[in-house]
Amino acid sequence: MPLSEPSAQPPATAMVSSEPVRFGAEGAGARNVEVAVETPVNIVYGNMPYAVMMASPSDLADFITGFSLTEGIIRAADEIRGVAVEPKEEGVVVTVELAPGRFREHLARRRNLSGRTSCGLCGVETIEEIPMADAATRAARAVSAQAVEAALAALDRHQPLNRLTRAVHAAAWCDAGGAILAAREDVGRHNALDKLIGARLRAGADASAGFMLVTSRASFEMVEKTAIFGAGTLVSISAPTSLAIERAKHLGLTLVSVARRDGCTVFAGRLAPSLETTSR
User: pLDDT value at position 78?
Assistant: First the structure.
């Protein structure tokens, strides 16, 4: 899809002055550190404002594509004809040109969403309005514990923004062996996942050929976004919520959480037998 020049996107980090304090010791004096930029991103479809999301101003075309998919506005990447990024003093305006038929459908179902950092349900007025994935049988390839372990071991190398700021979440797309093929970062965990989904959607990737790895907890919205994209497994660093587990089971999605270097916990579905087990 056409996108305004990348230079139009504001930087994702900013240099600020800070003063470290050690308890029981003298101050070390002021020093400059890099912090994550958080900015309002006003998403406009055609000439109709839709949402203001607090986000990191990077990979905005990926973000818009994934957000549009998981919000139910588009069903495929080619239904977005263009994305224009316009930095302003108070934030960033992203204008999205939809295919004519898709824009007419969007106007028919338009709702007002007032964003918060990574909030997935702001602006929803009734339970019936919550976006829901279809409970379809998933033909996704099963993931082994070895693949999860490999992905966790490689995750730090795919988080350059977090290395600088220690303030952002990441979402990674891993192949069946656990190799990380793509990763996106954002101050909002939902935004990071939407960016990753958008990147894979724009690349024409097969959603059934790998799994999602996120650095946050597994919430209802994270499960829904994963399922809407079509992936069969979601791995999260932190614990899941009860509704996330319930939805994962309903959708036939494998949910692996509390994922650490020494192990993980399966809350829904199951992991595939490891190569060591099957070779015995």
Answer: 94
Whole-angstrom distance, CA of residue 232 vs CA of residue 139: 8
At residue 277, the pLDDT reads 44
Instruction: Please tell me the distance from the alpha carbon of residue 100 to that of residue 84, in angstroms, as a whole number.
Output: 17
Given a contact cutoff of 8 angstroms between Cβ atoms, the answer to whether 83 and 95 are in contact is yes
Per-run averaged pLDDT (10 residues), the chain, 280 residues? 65 89 75 92 93 94 96 94 92 94 85 46 51 61 93 97 96 97 97 98 94 96 94 96 93 94 94 62
Q: What is the spatial distance between Cα 115 and Cα 121, in angstroms, rounded to a whole number?
A: 9
What amino acid occupies position 2?
P
Element containing residue 153 per DSSP (H, E): helix 145-154
How far apart CA 75 and CA 140 sit, in angstroms, is 19
Question: What b-and-e string marks burial along 142-180, b requiring 16 or more CB atoms within 10 Å of the CB?
Answer: ebbbbbbbbbbebbeebbebbeebebbbbbbbbbbebeb
Q: What is the structure's pLDDT at 137? A: 46
The active-site residue, picked from 119, 122, 174, 264, is 119
Dihedral class, residue 16 (left if φ above 0, else alpha if ψ from -120 to 50, else beta): beta
Does the global pTM surpass 0.70? Answer: yes
Instruction: Judge whether 119 counts as a catalytic residue.
Output: yes
Six-digit token string for 234: 């979601």
Per the rule left: phi > 0, alpha: psi between -120 and 50, beta: everything else, 72 is: left
CA distances from 201 to 1, 13, 49, 104, 205 (A): 12, 26, 24, 22, 6
210-214 vs 169-175, strand pairing mode: antiparallel
